[in-house]
Amino acid sequence: MGWSRQLVNAKLQTNNTFKCRHGEYECLLNTVEACAIDAWPDVNEHFPFTYCVENFVYQGKYLQWETCFKTLGLDDKPITDCVESEKGLQLDLKYAAETTALQPPHTYVPWVVVDGQPLYEVETLQRTHVQAVQE
């Protein structure tokens, strides 16, 4: 085939692996976060973990993400089992397909769409949110 799909920060290769724009840790942590959403589908359960992981990313401390389990009192087994298995790849492929199917197409991060219209600026996001809440 010889083609790949660009997913903004990750490129899906023809062999169903990913090459991430920001390196191997971005790919790993994409899988970690996909596994967290799968293991803890309630946003109140997975979001604190994702926030903790992303906080370490923001600080450039990519290897510290595993401390989030202890910090939040979470069992690491569901996530590590998922990441180290075929399930992690399948979740990555699932989210890649969802991203590719977005309408309008996803072109940058963060990609926020309200009523089918992408919001290009924070001010637009705030204004649109207020309008949507008032309706």
What does this structure look like?
It is found in: Secreted. Belongs to the GILT family. The chain folds into two domains: 5-101, no CATH class; 103-135, no CATH class. The protein is built from six helices and five strands, in the order βββαααααββα. The strands form two sheets. Strands 1-2-3 form a three-stranded antiparallel beta sheet. A two-stranded antiparallel sheet has the order 4-5. It has helices at residues 24-39, 43-58, 67-72, 77-83, 86-100, 122-134, and strands at residues 5-6, 10-12, 18-20, 113-114, 117-118. The chain is globular, with a radius of gyration of 17 Å. Residues 1-8 have low confidence and may be disordered. The longest helix has 16 residues, at 24-39. α1 (24-39) packs antiparallel against α2 (43-58), α1 (24-39) crosses α4 and α1 packs across α5 (86-100). Helix content is 54%, strand content 9%. β4 (113-114) and β5 form a beta hairpin. By secondary structure, the protein is mainly alpha-helical.
Query: Helicity range of the residues?
Result: 40-55%
Beta-strand residue fraction: 5-15%
Give the tally of structural domains.
2
What's the Cα radius of gyration? 17 Å
Query: Uncertain regions: pLDDT < 50 for 5+ in a row?
Result: 1-8
For the sheet with most strands, the description reads: 3 strands, antiparallel
The number of helical runs is 6
The structure class reads mainly alpha
DSSP E strands, number:
5
Strand sequence of the main sheet, in spatial order? 1-2-3
Order of helices and strands: EEEHHHHHEEH
Mean pLDDT level: 80
Through-space gap between termini = 48 Å
The shape is globular
GO molecular function: oxidoreductase activity, acting on a sulfur group of donors, disulfide as acceptor
Subcellular location: Secreted
Keywords: Glycoprotein, Secreted, Signal
Protein name: Reductase
